[in-house]
Amino acid sequence: MHDPSKKMPGETAFAVVLVGLSGFLLWQAILISGFEALSSPGAFPMAAAFAMLVTSVAILIKTLRLRERMALRFFTDVAPPVILAMFAMMLGYALLLKPLGFLPTSLLFLTVSIFALRRRGLLWSFGVSLASLALVYVIFRLVFTVLMPSGVVPEGEILAWLGNLFSGGDTQ
Amino acid sequence: MTEALQFFLISWLDLKLLGLVALGTFAGIYVGAIPGLSVTMAVSILISFTFAWDVYPALCLMVGIYMGGVYGGSRTAILLNIPGAPSAIATALDGYPLAQKGQAGEAIGLSTVMSFVGGFIGIGVLAVAAPFVSEFALTFQPRDYMLLAILGILLVGSLSGESLLKGVFAGALGLLIGAVGLDPLTAEERFTFGMVELWGGISFIAVMIGLFGVSEALTQLHHIDKAAVKQTIGRIVPSWRAVGKYLPLSLQTSSIGVIIGALPGTGGDIAALMAYDHAKRVTKKPEVPFGEGAAEGLVAPETANNAAVGGAFIPMLTLGIPGDAVTAIIIGAMFIHGLNPGPMLMIEQPQMFWFITGALVLANIFMLIFGLTGIRLFTKIVEMPRAVLIPLILLLSIVGAYAVNNSITDVYWMLLFGAFGYLLKTYGYQVGPVILGVILSRLIDENWRRAIISEQEDLGRLFMGIFTSPLSLVLFGAVVFIFISQTPLWTGLRARFGTARARGDGV
């Protein structure tokens, strides 16, 4: 997608941000232990931040020199609504994960995003989401034993009840 | 020797470990084969789920995914002209024309068998060479480690992207991310901004999943409406005659693969391209011209990229220096499991080395089995709509980032690096050097300080040491060469040399 001979929308701004970031990090690196010794804790971060600053300034100069622009627009080609929306959905997922729990949040996330991306009916999206979530749950929660926040669903009790059901059948 | 064999066979005899190698290889092949999903993405997301495990099962899964993933990339290269992994770029050159002629089945079969041959040769060299390399590595000075690590980052930065400047920026950024937290030697705070949460540093998993999982998935959203391509594939098991015919070539390209794979900073992608070039030069009369479906053009890169897997494990296990982004992730995972890849690993825990070698051989065998079967299931998975696939990947990314420390902060870091990685990629920066930088940050920092303290803080003496040791001098020369090779002076010189040689040829 990127063509080094042409400028993309937002490329100059991004290069400026990287120069700013590098400058800030270099300043922070100097604050660690100053220039006291070559083996000080701040020496290596200073060298790395300095390399970042030098390269980012060189990249900015190169970008500024580019005359030709790509026939693209920032909010349609670089960060189109679909990407911004998906990112916002992920943020929402992270916010809801703890209070609501893994199962309801994931089901909501999958249903809404699949529905929005595929536009094939809410019921279809819900069905596909439910099936995929069941698979994810079995593989990661039960086989890989990954612990996820249970939130409003009494997951532990349900699993224990299911476990009892089977072990109960064995012992009786 | 019998002890080595015992450790070698652990994963073969334990049913659970055997199953995990099989599962990893299977997952690697299929994830690698889905266009847009790379091996790096598969390894980074799946590895995050294994941190609670014991080290043996976790290693089995990782080894399987790596081996399967490198091979899986060839499938989409052949069928859709979209390399599933960078190491399959050369495979598409002749693989896709073969598929267009309706010989996709033969092409897949041949590439599977040849990947198997290449994989075996790579592992063989690993088993023989690694003990010697690690013995040699014991003589390395701290400065040599530092130079070797810098060389690795520079090689990845200069070879994989559009400019060395952007590669160096990405590598330096990674080094800085790796430095966040309490300094391991003096416990001084670095880039913590007074926050206790940052004392332990930024989670490596969060950075990795952000850069390789989320940013790739976001990039794929650009192609959400592209319909999956349907393919019909016939017989895929190749004939003995075909395999025998290309065996001599495959042996040559395997050696290229192992050597390139073993160099720090160069992996399967470069090995495959060099092997393709070699095949082009040595095949005087191909049945079909190169680029139009020559079998030699398929055999060469496929043997080389799988041979490079064994090769890449040599610097990884003996020096602790990764060859590419995938090995960087595996090294990071090994750290978390309490292993310390480097020359001491071979001395203190030789069982680990033989165990990994055994698992690699096993993964190679599973790759052959899964590669030659299950073609129906394969076409189904490849045709899975992206509208379902991408939300699932994003979900797994969040679960993976959360699962390692049960921390929601890690999820926010992952999202931040996901968005940042997406922008980096969009504007032509490579993300591979970032992860290499994160992994190598501590190694470079510690060895730099050891080197300079042992020279009594005197830069002059450090350089004196470099110029009087042949090994240091070679490494230093290589680092300098990479910089010079990117300057206008070098391009000018090369152009002049090139025209002079062309004129000489003409005479």
From TrEMBL, chain A:
Q: Name one Pfam family in it.
A: TctB
Enumerate the InterPro entries for this protein. DUF1468 (IPR009936)
Say yes or no: keyword Cell membrane present.
Answer: no
Q: Which UniProt keywords apply?
A: Membrane, Transmembrane, Transmembrane helix
* Sequence ranges assigned to domain DUF1468 in this UniProt record: 13-149
Instruction: Say which domain of life the source belongs to.
Output: Bacteria
Query: By what name is this protein known?
Result: Tripartite tricarboxylate transporter TctB family protein
Organism the protein comes from: Limimaricola soesokkakensis
TrEMBL record, chain B:
**Annotated transmembrane regions:** 12-33, 39-66, 108-133, 167-186, 198-215, 256-276, 321-340, 352-375, 387-405, 411-441, 462-484
Pfam families xref list: TctA
PANTHER family named among the record's database cross-references: TRICARBOXYLIC TRANSPORT PROTEIN
Record carries keyword Transmembrane helix: yes
Q: Kindly give the InterPro entries that the UniProt entry links to this protein.
A: DUF112_TM
Which UniProt keyword terms apply here? Membrane, Transmembrane, Transmembrane helix
Domain DUF112: residue ranges: 18-436
List each coiled-coil range: none
Q: Report the source organism.
A: Limimaricola soesokkakensis
> Protein name, please?
Putative tricarboxylic transport membrane protein
